[in-house]
Structure formats: structure tokens, C-alpha cells
Amino acid sequence: MAEERTVITLICERAADINSLINDKSEVTDAPGVKVLKFPCSGMIQPLMVEQAMKSGAAGVIVCGCQIGDCYYREGNKMIRERLLGERPPGLKKTVDRKRVLALWLSKPQKDRFLSEAKEFLSVVRRLDIEESKKG
Amino acid sequence: MEKSNMFHTLFLVPEKLINKIVTSKYNPLYYHGALPQFIMYVLFLSGLLLFAYYVPTVDNAYFSKNLINAFTSVDYITNSIPFGAVVRAIHRYAGDAMVIAILLHMVRVWFTDRFRQYRWVQWLSGVVLLLMVMFIGQTGYYLIWDERSLLLTRMTVSALESLPGIGEHLKHWFLNGRNITNLTLSNYLFIHIGLSFSLLFALWIHYVRMTRPVITPPPALNYLLVALILLAVYVFPITETKMADLNLQPTNMEIDWFFLWPYWLLSAVGSGGFWFWMVVLLAVLCLIPLPMFYGSKPVEAAEVVTNKCTGCRLCSLDCPYQAIEMVPAPAGSRFKLLATVKSYRCSSCGVCVGACAFDAIDLPEMPDAQVNLKIKELLEAK
């Protein structure tokens, strides 16, 4: 069986406040295997970064911004959303497996929602890993 | 800390609840800036209908049954024109709604910390807009020319007269002469309408540093707002009042707390105190965005990597604060344009980084290369 791969979370520091959830290795304590990288705004996340993470061996990528309509910097979350959906250049490459990208739009107090979604996503991508390794 | 706790109960709780019920697309709290703009259109339209029948005169030199002046024309609109009373009440309650919406906008912008640094132009123009709206609303109350209008006029005159040096001149400007005459009401009408259209100019300054300002709430919210105003119109119809009589001195009036609270202040503390508190209030509003109160570190503007920029314009199109300008590329470049950052407008949000497919723009605090390195580190660490 393949080794258990990591899920990378690219998150806006003003979205769900998950500081209390992560340990000093930037890993979510209750969902080992989910690692977190913070950005000043989700609008800063390039689709290239998502591809890069996948190429470097991530099992999946979670992109998390604030509630749509309430970006501190006005429209960052809308932009990364449109980029992931291919509605705004530069878009995410077609070769990236869409099943392995999760976008979440959570406001500051929604850390529980983040945790449950992250756990579910982790189990989904790991199941995908197993299925794909069986196919060969 | 205290601010964020208050924010939590004041905004986040209702925000969460509303998001659950109507989804974030229709949450009025996400359109707090667009709501006053829509109400402005309601006011323009209802005001246009009222303007068609309004006669800006005092004309009480000859009291006859067929007297036509400001008060009787308002009376005619209210009682004789089909739905005239409704249009008039819409105009009044939409005005109140405007003040409520502006205050909501202001308080929310303050709580969410979206008013300083690269946004100070928006805050200051917002203060000017608020003053304009207040004065427009007050002139609306003068125009009706009932006893309250007369009292308000006399109170304003006494407040203006108390100002040293310029007081007398301001009084002449305000009354359009030395006494209350027909010209006074035409001056009021000019201020009321002229200043209303000047709002558009002030709004331009309010929006000029923002790309794609959100100025139209979703139609569903507009319908809801109009329904709320109509509800107010039918629950609290405008009451009959008495025509102003220049020979009498009315002393009491009903106060519309949204627009007329300065007159309450004026009667409570007198002219000197009134101007003192007004100046204090204005100074506080204007000084709120001063950076020294917040001890925040200055924004480190994004930087263009000159030899990587292809001049594709994506960053300048996506920048939410109009901080990136495309300039002709220097001689010898393969490309026609080069992005340049206006650092005084930059918020350091990184949207331009997300827009760039060539790694040609970076935040000094968090360059692309470092992000990719960190991703690799996270993946390798066990």
C-alpha cells in the first residue's frame, strides 16, 4: 500500500481562525496529514502554487478564503474562486485532478467547520490514493 | 480585544445567521456600501415626482383661499394627487433609511478595520458624504414650510449669526437676503437639489481608488428594502401640520432623530456649545484614520520583478485598489508594457501575485519562491 500522503492547506489568515487547531509543525493536530500555509489574502494564491504542491507530492490541496462577499481586501476570495473554476486568467491547469482540490469559504469563527471538512477531504483523497494504486 | 468581542456580537452573530438563511449572496451586511447608493436612486426618483408639483414660495403677503405657496403645494401633493401622500412618505422614509444605511456602513467599516492606511481617501470622502446627506435631509424639512420649517429656519439663522465675523454673511446666504422671503425657499430648493446631485461627484471620489466598487445590491435586496420603506409609509403616514406663519413664533416641534438631532443639541446647549460639539465631532471623524492610533506597521508594497514582467496587464486589472499602472516598457525590452506599483495605494494583499502567471510580482514579506519552498518543506517533513 502506498504511504499516506499529505494534504496542503493554503489559507487566508483572515478566514477561519485555525491557529488553535495547528501544532508547531503547521500540522492540524486533530487531522494529522493536513498541513497549513497562511497567506495575507486568499487572492494571493496562484493556481501555479496548487499545481506545484501536487507535483511535489501532495495528495490534495485545500484552498480556504473568507466568505464570498466579505474579503478584507475586497475581492481576493472571488478571484481565486474564479481562477480555480477557470473563469479568470491565470486558471488552474486541466491536468490537475479536480477531485483533489477543495475550496472552502469560511469566516473567522468557523474553525469547527474547517476541521470537519478537512478530515472528510483527507479521507476522500486517501481513498483515491488507494484506488489509484490498485489500478496500478 | 474589546473591539473584536463587540464586533463578534454586533456583526458576526447576525452575519452567520443571515448567511444560513439566505446564503452569503443575499446577505445585506455584505452590501452595506451599496445600500445607500440604491436608496439614493429611490430618493432621486421620488424627489423628481415631488419636484413636479412643488412651488418654492412663501407668499403669505396676501392670505387668500387660493394661496399658492410651498406649504399648500405640499398639501396639494399629499391630498389631491393620486398616491401623492405615498410618494411624499417614501421620500421621507427613504431619507431616514439612507441615514441608517450610511451609519451601518460606517460602523461596519470601522469594526472590520477597513478605513485606514490605503483607504483613507474613502473614509474622508465618506465623512463629507455624510455631512452632505445630513444637510440635504435638513433642507428637505425646511422645504415643507410648516411651523417646524419656520422654527428650524430661525434656529439655523441664530446658530449662523453666532459665528464671529462670517455669521452675518452666512445668514444672508442662507436666507438669500436679509429676511425670509420667496427667495429663501428657492435657495432651500437649490441647496436641496443641487447638493443631491453633488453627491454623485463626491461618490466618484469615494470610489475612485477602488476597482469594481460594489454599488448595486442584488435586486432581491432592493425589493426587500422598498417593501420595508412602503411598510413604514403605511404604518406611519405623514401627519398633517400647520402652515408657517411669520408673525408667530413656534417653540415646539417633532424631531426626526435621523436628521434633526443637531437642532436638539442646539436647543440644549446653545449656539456656542453647538458649534463646539460639531467641530469636535467632525475632528474626531476626520482623525479616526490617522495611523498613529493603531501602531500598525506600514504597508510593504508589492514589487515588480522587472526582467520577468511580460506586460500582460492581468495584475493591473485585478488589483482592487488601482495601485498598479502599466507604463511603456524601457527601451530594449521584449515587451511593450511594464507593470509599476503605486506604493501609496498598495494594500499588500497579494492579489497581483495570484494574478501573475510569470512570478513577476512579489510581496517583499512573502516572495513566490519562498512559498513554493515552504510547500515543499511541509510535504517533506514527516
Question: What labels describe this entry?
Answer:
heterodimer; A: 136 residues; alpha/beta; Rossmann fold; four-stranded parallel beta sheet; 3 helices; 4 strands; B: 382 residues; mainly alpha; Cytochrome Bc1 Complex, Chain C; Alpha-Beta Plaits; 2 domains; two-stranded antiparallel ribbon
Walk me through this protein's architecture.
The complex is a heterodimer of chains A (136) and B (382). In chain A, 32% of the residues lie in helices and 17% in strands. Chain A has helices at 47-55, 76-85, 111-135; strands at 7-12, 34-39, 60-65, 101-105. Chain A is globular. The mean pLDDT of chain A is 91. In chain A, strand 3, helix 2 and strand 4 (101-105) form a beta-alpha-beta unit. Chain A is built from 3 helices and 4 strands, in the order E-E-H-E-H-E-H. A 4-stranded parallel beta sheet of chain A has the order 2-1-3-4. With 136 residues, chain A is an alpha/beta fold. With 382 residues, chain B is mainly α. Chain B has 2 domains: 32-293, Cytochrome Bc1 Complex, Chain C, CATH 1.20.810.10; 303-380, Alpha-Beta Plaits (2-Layer Sandwich), CATH 3.30.70. In chain B, 57% of the residues lie in helices and 4% in strands. Chain B contains 13 helices and 4 strands. Chain B has helices at 2-22, 34-51, 70-79, 84-111, 120-143, 147-161, 167-175, 182-207, 219-235, 261-287, 314-318, 351-355, 368-380, and strands at residues 303-304, 324-328, 337-341, 361-362. In chain B, the strands form 2 sheets. Chain B has a two-stranded antiparallel ribbon. In chain B, strands 2-3 form a two-stranded antiparallel ribbon. In chain B, a hairpin with an 8-residue loop joins strand 2 (324-328) and strand 3 (337-341). The radius of gyration of chain B is 26 Å and the shape is elongated. The two termini of chain B are 36 Å apart. The model of chain B has no long low-confidence stretch (mean pLDDT 91). Chain A binds chain B through residues 6, 8, 25-26, 35, 37, 39-41, 43-46, 48-49, 52-53, 56-58, 67-70, 72-76, 79-80, 83, 88-90, 105, 107-109, and chain B through 8, 12, 15-16, 19, 24-25, 27, 29-31, 112-114, 210-212, 314, 318, 320-321, 347-351, 353-357, 359, 363, 365-366, 368, 371-372, 374-376, 378-379, 381.
